Known about the structure:
Elements: E1 6-9, E2 14-15, H1 16-22, H2 29-37, E3 41-43, E4 46-47, E5 54-55, E6 60-63, E7 69-73
InterPro entries: S4_RNA-bd, S4_RNA-bd_sf
Protein name: RNA-binding S4 domain-containing protein
Keywords: RNA-binding
Amino acid sequence: MTSIPAVPVRSVPVRLGQLLQLANLLESGSEAKEVIANGLVRVDGEVELRRGRQLHGGEVVQVDGAGPVRVVHAP
Length: 75
């Protein structure tokens, strides 16, 4: 079993669109908006359509075509 790479965030909650950029899964907010609206992002295995979805740490986020990442709080 492979481990899921962690994306440390200092300030939680973090919005989904911001996390996608922090994790280098997408390059811009407009790209995040489009990818999320097209149903290509999953949070904990469920399709997420809200760019402003707040993530508190521990969630697994995946964009179609990219490996998953786990949100972790980095104090």
